[in-house]
Design goal:
This protein has helices at 4-21, 46-59; strands spanning 38-39, 69-70. It is mainly alpha-helical. A two-stranded parallel ribbon has the order 1-2.
């Protein structure tokens, strides 16, 4: 368990790390074990993400399933 101050410090360190690795970034993310949320679009091909959005709208229109990376 971290305190808010520790969480802020960790975020700053992660920013430095991600920045240092940016020359090798592919523009995609690996969504498993991701500490930072965001859109799931960057974890899938455009075609797969569109299909995932369609599935989400059909089977979870109320957004009951929640994850760090949003769909749709």
């Amino acid at each position: 368990v971290t305190s808010p101050d520790q969480a802020d410090e960790l975020e700053r360190h992660l920013d430095v790390l991600v920045g240092a690795l940016s020359p090798w970034a592919t523009g995609t993310v690996y969504a498993n074990f991701a500490e930072r949320g965001g859109s799931a679009a960057s974890a899938f091909s455009p075609e797969d993400y569109r299909r995932l959005v369609e599935i989400r709208r059909r089977w979870d229109a109320d957004g009951r399933f929640v994850a760090s990376h949003t769909v749709g």
